[in-house]
Amino acid sequence: MTRKFLVLSLLFSAFLLFNTPQSFAAGSEEDKTSFIMHHVKDSHEWHIATFGHTHVTLPLPVIVYSSDRGLEFFSSTDFQNHETHAFGKEYAHEGYYIDEHDHLGRVDGASFLELSITKNVVMMFIVMILLAWVALSAANHYKKNGAVAPKGAAAIIEPIVIFVRDEIAQKSIGPKYKKFVPYLLTLFLFIWFGNLLGLLPGAANMTGNIAVTMTLAVLTFIITNVNGNKDYWKHVFATPGVPIPMLLIIVPVEIIGLFTKPFALMVRLFVAITAGHIVILGFIALAFIFESYTIGVVSTLMVTFINIIELLVATIQAYVFTLFTAMYIGSAVAEHAHDDHH
Amino acid sequence: MDLITPGSGLIFWQLFGFLGLLFILIKFAWKPMLAALEERESSIENALKSAEIARNEMANLKAENEKLLAEARLERDNILKKAQEASNKMIEEAKTEAQKQGAQLIENAKAVIETEKKAALADVKNQVAALTLEVTEKLLKKNLSDDASQKALVDEFVKDLKLN
């Protein structure tokens, strides 16, 4: 066990050394840790590795829509120094620039809508393609062989499908669960795959991005409230068993409650995944800050340990997001035979 | 890009990407998969149910067999008992019949003996009478000539009689 752990650590450290931008490590105190936030945030290019002064990056398309200029396509390399790959206002291109904080801006200050394929968008597409491939090949097994014992991809996916259907959907939603199983399955697997792939060295922190978690939370919010039945809305606007003067307080609280639920979903996933990445990278940064081999060894061991915990967190967060979604849907579609216990 | 400011591009792609993924997976993955799972589960349930039914039938059949066996056994015992009774009765009857016939035979034999005895006695009487007559006749004939010779003659005849 210990030996395996050490071997794993060594393997991770090789990956991490390969992926950590040495240029950050060589600079000032701030530069030594800035790669952490650089990794955690979204970017207009995918920085893979740096060898001396050579940056290995994947340039990504920058897509902008503005009412006066229409849809425009650029490359992320249009906005940066070709030597250092640094963004800055001085590298403006056709009226747009990407500042040093990786922010797209317009020189004349007019409003525009950014639709760029950023690092996280690419990551998201990778996750989606992988997920679609696994799920479709699993489904193919049933198409080919009928309702027989699972094999291959189906053997991996089937227990998850059964778990989501029986343990999450059926238990949290109740008798009307069948309609929501496909959404919950997609949600669970998307978050889970995203979390796991995000742990790979060099990968993007996609599920730890607030835009991604927000979109998922909004979808859950829409599905919950679109399916809300009479009891659900009655509970919000005329809570049974509450005296009318109290409704003045209760109703606003209930309405706020509608929004705090998806908000909590959004923040929980974002914080859990981002924090995990920051902790791992923080341990790596220790080696650069102290410039010591001993610290390097210790932090590598710690990184391996945290990485193993992160595997757990990846699964738990996917489960929690799906479970809470199911519970919110469950509360919206539940039939209350007796309202007196509210 | 900021940590807690959602980027519009990411929201856009995430929304449409996820909805697209949802659509594709629902249509081509989850629906066939869930249907196959349900089918398999129901087939397993049916198999278990039919096994249960078969087991019950087996138990019923066994119980019925046992019932039949018990009935057959009872029947056999009855038959045996009846046969025993019948044979006993027959033996008893045969015995009575034999006794009756024996008694009859003895009776008949006795009657025959009686008749024979009577006939023999009658015969003896007749012969005695005849002899007496003969002796008397011869005595009478002798008497006429000589008394002594007559007496000797009678003795002689009596001797003859004894010998006979």
Automatic annotation (TrEMBL), chain A:
Residues 1-25 form the signal peptide. Gene3D superfamilies: ATP synthase, F0 complex, subunit A. GO terms for cellular component: plasma membrane; proton-transporting ATP synthase complex. It is a multi-pass membrane protein. It is found in: Cell membrane; Membrane. The chain crosses the membrane at residues 121-139, 180-200, 206-224, 236-259, 265-290, 302-329. Belongs to the ATPase A chain family. This is ATP synthase subunit a.
UniProtKB/TrEMBL annotation, chain B:
This is ATP synthase subunit b. Residues 34-101 form a coiled coil. One of its GO terms (cellular component) is endomembrane system. The lineage of its organism: Bacteria, Pseudomonadati, Bacteroidota, Cytophagia, Cytophagales. The chain crosses the membrane at residues 12-30. Component of the F(0) channel, it forms part of the peripheral stalk, linking F(1) to F(0). The b'-subunit is a diverged and duplicated form of b found in plants and photosynthetic bacteria. The keyword Transmembrane helix applies. One of its GO terms (molecular function) is proton-transporting ATPase activity, rotational mechanism.
